[in-house]
Amino acid sequence: MLHSVVSLLHGWDEPLANAIAEKADLVRGMHEDIKLFLAQLNHSRLEDGKKERSSELANIAYNLETAADAISTGLIDQVRHLYSGQLKISANGLSDFEDFHDRVLSNAQLALDVLMNGAPDAAGQLLRAKEKARAAERKLQERHLERLCAGISESFETSRMHQESLRILKNVNTAFATVGYPIAARLGDLLSTRLSEKAKSELKKGT
Fold it and tell me: What is the CATH number of the domain that holds 45?
């Protein structure tokens, strides 16, 4: 889903857009299944550690659904608007988006590895990668503003789409990064990043 969406910037493909939407529906269905499973557990008989783990799994499932929604609706809508308005993103803008997409895709793959194996080092790496992505997104937004100041017509025409798409990708990255919070929190690794109390708060809120 995340891997495929960038292809739409090179040409609108309705079957591909529909396939991405269908995958998002599958993710929503899995989230509902996880919630149902966790709701059926007898929490009064669970050990504290297992209660905490069930809460963490519920939060992770919620955030992965949030990422799927952002891709299947947010990004798809932005690209659809691009083509319906017969607009064209600038070459530099497209390059920036593809580079940031690659970064987020790499972080998403790392998040899935952490989810499967729970490796502490990888969890810490994931959280640090999240902060690097935030910084990268800010830099790309600044580059976009520089292109606007330079009077590049394509940048004016697609400005809102470009800025919003970068923001959506950043939020997708953040959603995947929540996979690493519980492991890092248990090991105290949050103290080694700027996250610390902010990350713990985000874990509780599911953001």
Answer: 1.20.58
